[in-house]
Amino acid sequence: MSIYTKRKIFYAIWVLIMLSGPITIFRNVALSQVLSSNLVLLNTFQRLTGTMAFSLIFMQIMIGSNMDKFVQILGSKAYRIHIVQGLLVYATAFSHPIFESLIVFTVSRKVADAFFVVIPSLNTQRDILLTFGKMGLALLTIGVVAAYFRTKPVFRKYWRYFHYFNYVVFFLIAFHARVGTDLGSLPFDSFYWTAIVIVSLTLMYKISVYFKSEIIKSFQKL
């Protein structure tokens, strides 16, 4: 298979993954309903940013964990895609709770209620699932700060470890997604479970490679 064909396959898969969320959402809610009220419109944007954040973090992990292979296919564009994709992950994840706050404010007309949405809570199962999302956003923020200061000695030394945040963020978002209404509907539901399996296998492979290298190093020191 030629490099050109592999590139087309990559871009096609990327687009299909990104569309899995929007297609599911607009299968569940008609466009006329979306425009029927501010609440429905805000909820639609909230769902779009949520599903897109999940799709983007999945692709970010796939590219980041196989960068050498993607460089062979995409050339230097692989690095640019990885950077732009990282910014999109944060943009969608950051805007997602903002829409939740706007929804709460639209209903209650109280700024305090909209603000308290961002405060973690463990009172109910729904609150716990929401807290997973807030934890994921906090880790993403740390990752973005680390990326910005990656030329500094401390961050440069531990830069590769910050990449492992993506795995934690992915699973936090995956748990958080259980609070949504679009799981159980195709095609996003199928992608959701497939992504969890793939990322889990990727993480297990990374861990096994790490421990294997550590064992080899320990034997070499004997």
Automatic annotation (TrEMBL):
<feature type="transmembrane region" description="Helical">
    <location>
        <begin position="50"/>
        <end position="67"/>
    </location>
</feature>
<protein>
    <recommendedName>
        <fullName>Ferric oxidoreductase domain-containing protein</fullName>
    </recommendedName>
</protein>
<feature type="transmembrane region" description="Helical">
    <location>
        <begin position="128"/>
        <end position="149"/>
    </location>
</feature>
<keyword id="KW-0812">Transmembrane</keyword>
<feature type="transmembrane region" description="Helical">
    <location>
        <begin position="9"/>
        <end position="30"/>
    </location>
</feature>
<keyword id="KW-1133">Transmembrane helix</keyword>
<feature type="transmembrane region" description="Helical">
    <location>
        <begin position="161"/>
        <end position="179"/>
    </location>
</feature>
<feature type="transmembrane region" description="Helical">
    <location>
        <begin position="191"/>
        <end position="211"/>
    </location>
</feature>
<keyword id="KW-0472">Membrane</keyword>
<feature type="transmembrane region" description="Helical">
    <location>
        <begin position="87"/>
        <end position="108"/>
    </location>
</feature>
